[in-house]
Amino acid sequence: MATETVLHTALTLVDQLPALQILVSFIAAPLIVVLGSRRLAWPIAFAASALSLVIAAILLSQVLDGSIISYRMGGWAPPLGIEYRVDAANAFVLFLVAAISTVVLPYARTSFSKEISTRHHTAFYAAYLLCFSGLLGVTITGDAFNVFVFLEVSSLSTYVLIAQGAERDKRALTAAYDYLIMGTVGATFFVIGIGFLYMATGTLNLADIADRIAEQGSNRTIRAAFAFIVVGIGLKVAMYPLHRWLPNAYTYAPSAVTAFLAATATKVAVYVMLRFIFSVFQPNFLFEFNTLEFIILPFALIAMFACSFVAIFQSDFKMMLAFSSVAQIGYILLGISFLTETGVTAAVAHLFNHGITKATLFMAVGAYVFTANGSYYDTIQGLGRRMPLTSAAVVVGGLSLIGVPGTAGFISKWVLVQGALEKGWWPVAILIVASSLLAVIYVWRVIEVLYMRPTPENCEVREAPMSMVVPMWIAALACIYFGLNTDLTLSAAQTAAQGLMSGSAGMR
Amino acid sequence: MRHHLILRVITKLLIGSIMLFALYVQFHGDYSPGGGFQAGVIMAVAFIIYGVVFSLDEAQRVLPPWVVHKMAALGVLIYAATGVYSLFVGYGFLDYTALSPDYPEKGQHYGILLVELGVGVTVTGVMVTIYYAFTSRTPIMDDEAW
């Protein structure tokens, strides 16, 4: 029997933060089910989400200078054990996800009370927390297979959340089913890609994979892995030709779920894509260069135009925003395809700015659904004066969506145009501006419907309750704040881009 | 109303041994093939076979749906609590050494037993939940039609 004493320095609370980041919400979810109390479900969910936000803020402040936090799950050292790794890039995304969730939950409480029958509330909040912790897990982990597992945790709970919209509209069921099929295909492609990577390198730790790929250079297995991973994650990102699941899923899901997912789920998938394209695979590989320039770039441009066009002709506010989301993802992918630091900075900044913008707008849609029982233009026409606060939030969010100076959307588009000019791609820069004009049209349509059209006779719609308006305005004010003060977003995005762009060296 | 006499008798004989085998697979998981997943499925089979032969209502009297739902969540909590304990004692999350700092290899045994117990409870709960969800839809053919 080994009797020698093993020296061990106890870990402090700060050391444990990377684990606690996902644990808090992951434990709260089954706790809600075991307690089974409808009154306790929301407070527990909110407390877990708020605590996650505090942890994410502390982690972000620790890594903003470019340092890296590594945490060993179960005490097994990487590359054998699962490693949680926080750097500027993912701390930024963690912060976004936790912040959006904490803002959306108070809103969700009122919104769900009308949209979902009370007997489903406990299970619903549990699914919500699972989705939340899944998204955090995807972001924080430094292990390729762990990414897949958390991706499934978040996806499976997302299908449940979307299907809950069936109480208001039965089409939520087919929307959830479509997403289930597409999401599963995406996850399968992703895990096949990881299988190829494991075959080529014999390791699952992302940093370790990156090192070994750098050693052995490009070969057919690695190219196949790259293709599978880009397509698999592309489905989750809603990259242009793979986006068909998104509009229906966003439109028929309960309002608060849409606000949460639109601001976080695709953004986390974009982060995974960034991580794989820039850190795991070497950006200087020819095949990667070709993929970005000849596949992702054209599709990003098509998305920006095609989906903006489709958005213009929608008659449902929520559906319009969903198509606009696909178009906006085009901007993010465009930034990635530049393969320059400025481009990636723009992508990361737009990921954050578009997240808060869409959260504002989808929360506003939810307020119309709450008061007027629908989001069709016919239903909400002339409500601008009846619901002044909500409609003003729509205006702020809409301006940010277009990219008007003084709003968050402007900053990221500005950096994006800069990136295009740096590369000497004048036509692309002009296309970015031109597609923003399409955004002007679809946003103007909503504003016209809200303010210019007459309010129908005997309309008894009043302003939404404060519990919905306040979270909406927190997000709306964030749109303005991050449009005026760019210190946090741009410096974090830049540190993140530098870390990502330095390839495998950025993971050490 | 006494159909399938042989099935009923054999089932009653089998259920006990199925459960015993489930526990064997559960607690020998760290020495031999097995563990929480397999044990959970086998344990669920004991309830499912009871439901198949003696009707869903009988099975739900033994194991009501709300208990099953709580089981599914409880298992996750057992798993997580093991990790949180090690976290509170100053080790990494799920670092089993924390369960017996002086004899780390014993800690590994305790740790895996507890964690697999959590897995077993959850898998039993989930399997039975799936069975309940499918069978509690209206039957196409009733029992008398055989």
UniProtKB/TrEMBL annotation, chain A:
Please provide the record's keywords in A-Z order.
Answer: Cell membrane, Membrane, Transmembrane, Transmembrane helix
Job description of the protein = NDH-1 shuttles electrons from NADH, via FMN and iron-sulfur (Fe-S) centers, to quinones in the respiratory chain. The immediate electron acceptor for the enzyme in this species is believed to be ubiquinone. Couples the redox reaction to proton translocation (for every two electrons transferred, four hydrogen ions are translocated across the cytoplasmic membrane), and thus conserves the redox energy in a proton gradient.
Family per similarity comment: Belongs to the CPA3 antiporters (TC 2.A.63) subunit D family.
Q: Name one GO molecular function term.
A: NADH dehydrogenase (ubiquinone) activity
- In Swiss-Prot or TrEMBL terms, this protein is called Multisubunit sodium/proton antiporter, MrpD subunit
**Residue ranges of domain NADH:quinone oxidoreductase/Mrp antiporter transmembrane in the record:** 143-438
Pfam families this protein is in?
Proton_antipo_M (PF00361)
UniProtKB/TrEMBL annotation, chain B:
Q: Which residues cross the membrane?
A: 5-25, 37-56, 68-91, 111-134
Write the record's keywords in alphabetical order, separated by commas.
Answer: Cell membrane, Membrane, Transmembrane, Transmembrane helix
Q: Which GO terms describe its cellular component?
A: plasma membrane
**Highest rank taxon of the organism:** Bacteria
Q: Where is this protein localized, as stated in its record? A: Cell membrane
Main site of residence?
membrane
Keyword Glycoprotein carried by entry: no
Topology in the lipid bilayer is annotated as: Multi-pass membrane protein
**What residues does the Na+/H+ antiporter MnhB subunit-related protein domain cover?**
6-129
Q: Which NCBIfam families match?
A: PRK12508.1
Similarity annotation: Belongs to the CPA3 antiporters (TC 2.A.63) subunit B family.
Q: What is this protein called?
A: Multisubunit sodium/proton antiporter, MrpB subunit
